[in-house]
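Design job #97: recover the sequence.
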């Protein structure tokens, strides 16, 4: 993430938390640049962004002052007919008039979403290969569904999803993830991302604390920041998120986790930590969001049961996606909700977009219930295990003892740690664009610290990679890795 964005985000977080209260002076760009050992341009860019979003105001002779962002005036008291809404964030008339009228939550979403859009050009470790997918079977099932249901499929479906698909998902979750649930608890969505958005809208108020793994999944973090939450990272070690640290946050509303396969470091959360987190959530009244994005791709041994299976108090919202396990454009994912949330989420989902496409859902329901899903998983696992092995061999040949890799038991990416702790960004950049997704591990730290547990490395996606792509990327890395 560019330095100016990091600085902008930190200043913004301090303003939103009240650590920098309304009226506080931001030091001059010269002072800040000298203190932080960055250029004045970097500071200027960060402060200009804060000013454009109404977080600070600037006055000649006074300097840059934190604006009053936290208490918008009552609706009726607002002046009408202005060209932008930034004055209610406490900005001055100096705010440019071409900015759209965004709410504080809208401004947070625009800023967090923009960072995500900017980073999408980088390697995406979530890519999958479309080749193992049985397209002919899918086509056949889709024609059958059309013949069977005809025009009924052209009507809009249930906002929570096709009842047969919800039933098939509940059975799959029960059999393969150890989750005892009913079809009524399943909400079909377009993506996990839509799930984060829905959860943000339904469960979070502006300035609520959300805990996430550090390093972690940036798109989830961005969605919670976009919902106006104060997102706090909790460190990860060899057993997953350091559960003892969550007790420092008794006011947290939500904890987001990837327990089966930590994103991006890859470890599995230990059972005692799972139990400790469930106990914490129960005692402070927080929700846990369990993102189980790729545990279907278990290369060795049996899949580890989901944390939701241990949830006797109804605190865990489980999240699964078909966008990885089948193909990315299917745009189907799901939540398994605690029973007490079902009614409210049904209403919230209805307001969001009215439901997922009926034809695709009906086809997927058949694909699962007739055993094609299980057969696809068996084939795809073999395919990806072979890719994983090729990737490990190619990286070992390119990097030798300069790279270290854990055994990769699940998923479609691996992390090659840089033993000398050097900057991972130039390396990732050199290998990018060669048919292989390689991203710097440091990118997944919100507050990067070189001394963190496993701070730098290459996150290498073998899911969507071809043999040639793996070879080309490793060839590009070899000379760079060999340099001292
Ligand atoms: C941690 C994590 N969660 C969820 C997803 C998938 O999300 P979606 O269903 O929004 O495509 C990914 C990437 O594919 C991911 O890496």
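Job complete. Output follows.
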């Amino acid at each position: 993430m560019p330095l100016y964005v990091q600085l902008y985000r930190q200043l913004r977080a301090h303003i939103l938390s009240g650590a920098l209260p309304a009226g506080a002076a931001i030091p001059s760009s010269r002072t800040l640049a000298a203190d932080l050992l960055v250029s004045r341009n970097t500071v200027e860019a960060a402060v200009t962004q804060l000013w454009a979003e109404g977080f600070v105001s600037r006055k000649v002779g006074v300097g840059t002052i934190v604006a009053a962002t936290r208490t918008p005036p009552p609706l009726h008291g607002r002046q009408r007919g202005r060209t932008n809404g930034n004055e209610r964030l406490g900005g001055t008339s100096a705010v440019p008039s071409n900015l759209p009228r965004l709410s504080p939550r809208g401004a947070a979403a625009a800023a967090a979403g923009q960072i995500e859009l900017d980073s999408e050009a980088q390697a995406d470790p979530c890519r999958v290969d479309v080749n193992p997918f049985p397209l002919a079977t899918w086509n056949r099932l889709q024609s059958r569904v059309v013949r069977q249901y005809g025009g009924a499929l052209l009507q809009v479906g249930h906002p929570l999803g096709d009842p047969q698909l919800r039933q098939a998902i509940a059975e799959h979750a029960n059999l393969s993830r150890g989750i005892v649930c009913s079809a009524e608890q399943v909400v079909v969505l377009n993506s996990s991302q839509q799930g984060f958005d829905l959860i943000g809208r339904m469960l979070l108020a502006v300035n609520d604390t959300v805990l996430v793994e550090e390093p972690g999944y940036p798109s989830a973090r961005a969605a919670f920041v976009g919902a106006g939450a104060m997102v706090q990272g909790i460190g990860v070690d060899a057993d997953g998120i350091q559960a003892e640290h969550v007790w420092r946050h008794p006011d947290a509303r939500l904890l987001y986790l990837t327990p089966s396969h930590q994103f991006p470091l890859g470890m599995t959360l230990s059972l005692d930590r799972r139990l400790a987190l469930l106990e914490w959530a129960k005692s402070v009244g927080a929700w846990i969001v369990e993102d189980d994005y790729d545990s279907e791709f278990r290369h060795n041994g049996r899949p580890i049961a989901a944390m939701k299976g241990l949830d006797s108090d109804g605190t865990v919202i489980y999240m699964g996606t078909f966008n990885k396990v089948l193909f990315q454009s299917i745009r189907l994912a799901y939540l398994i909700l605690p029973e007490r949330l079902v009614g409210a989420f049904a209403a919230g989902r209805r307001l969001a977009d009215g439901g997922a496409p009926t034809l695709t859902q009906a086809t997927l329901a058949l694909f699962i219930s007739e055993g094609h899903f299980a057969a696809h998983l068996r084939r795809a696992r073999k395919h990806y295990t072979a890719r994983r092995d090729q990737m490990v061999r190619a990286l070992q040949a390119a990097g030798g003892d300069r790279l270290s890799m854990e055994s990769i038991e699940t998923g479609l990416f691996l992390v090659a740690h840089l033993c000398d702790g050097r900057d991972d960004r130039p390396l990732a950049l050199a290998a990018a664009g060669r048919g292989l997704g390689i991203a710097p591990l440091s990118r997944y730290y919100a507050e990067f610290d070189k001394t963190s547990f496993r701070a730098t490395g290459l996150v290498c996606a073998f899911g969507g990679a071809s043999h040639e792509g793996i070879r080309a990327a490793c060839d590009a890395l070899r000379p760079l890795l060999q340099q001292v």
